[in-house]
Amino acid sequence: MKKLAMVLMVLLLATGFVFANGTTEDAAPAADAGNKIKVGLLCIGDENDQGYSYNFIQGQKEATEILKAEGIDVEWVIKYNIGEDSTCLDANIEAAEEGCEIIFNNSFGFEPFMLEVAPEYPEIKFVGCTNCASAFDALPNTYNAFANIYEGRYVAGVVAGMKLNQMIEEGKIKPEEAVIGYVGAFSFAEVISGFSAYYLGAKSVCPSVTMKVSFVGSWSDATKESDAAIALADQGCVMISQHSDNTTPATAAQAKGVFHTGYNADMSAVAPAASLIGTRIDWAVYFAEFIRAHVNGTEMAQDWCKGMGDDAVVMTVLNEAIAAPGTKAKMEEVMAGIADGSIKVFDTAKFTVNGGQKLTHAFALDTNGDFAADTAEAVVDGVYLESYHQSAPYFVENIDGITWLNAAY
């Protein structure tokens, strides 16, 4: 009888039934062991910032569901609040020792530590998000990725410009008072590229717009970001935008009675009377593509970059309760133009630099921040080709109409 019972049990298990509380149910099909993968994600913050790291976590969750539907089971090892210091070195080692086959590093300052660890684990793929050096080193197991976020910045600028026009038409401000304040983390190419694209988007619909930029010297310092936004509003800025990780520029803008456009997340929840829209990189696109390629044995490009046309750059929901009339239609028009290439964000006919000069020639920057060789010409046929020679931004021109209030970082 015992042998018969054992045979019956084996048959039940083999046909997908399990005993539970005296009943039997269909068991979920087991994932193919070859399609199980452990992946690390190291974050400079956590979901509570509701900005930068929050956006990565949302991308991780979405990619997990996309891959699950394809039969790929991803187990994530996520480490939060990692510093751009030796703790990043330790975190990469820990993730490697925990069996991760891929380790994504989500902050610019993580890359040097990641590159120090990568040679010790040649079988593991290390990815620096928003970086550039890992694509050009001698290590075959290092990668970097970015997206054309400047495209989303341009669209957000159009939304801001539409609102400025409404304020001018309603007599709330004069044309010369259409001033945007921008909270920037550092005076790096990534930030300069973003606020330049944003300004050009605003100027495309509001010709009188000007911009003031305040750098805070940190990717994520909620207090400094808030203080900078307040100071900009006090200097007459009626619109605030940001390239920083927290929602405090949005809440500060609302407290000062001015408007706001955000980054990485929909900030209208914390500032419903101020925040018009945001833009973000949809990291689910890259995560899913990279992990899928790894599982299938397909090699990924070491320097990856996609944009709005590939849904890698997206806009958050427009806050139509406060947006100017006609904004949604204008947004859709501009987004379609960027996606099909008919709108060039850095069309050199649309701006001047350094006090009235036309930009006819520029070199892309290499991975050390120095000017690259003559073959890396960035201006071609009257268009500055941002993120063309490498995924990481390299636009560092001083566009007329934008005032840097400080440049200490």
Query: What is the end-to-end distance?
Result: 79 Å
Question: Strand count, sense and closure of the main sheet?
Answer: 7 strands, mixed
Which regions contain 5 or more consecutive residues with pLDDT less than 50? 1-31, 367-374
The CATH topology of the largest domain is what?
Answer: Rossmann fold
Numbering strands along the chain, what is their spatial order in the largest sheet? Answer: 14-12-11-10-8-9-17
Strand content: 15-25%
Task: Write a concise synopsis of the structure shown.
The protein is an alpha/beta fold and 409 residues long.
Give a written overview of the molecule:
Helices cover 33% and strands 20% of the residues. With 409 residues, the protein is of the alpha/beta class. Strand 3, helix 2 (52-69) and strand 4 (73-79) form a beta-alpha-beta unit. Helix 5 (149-169) runs antiparallel to helix 10. The longest helix is centred in the middle third of the chain and has 21 residues, at 149-169.
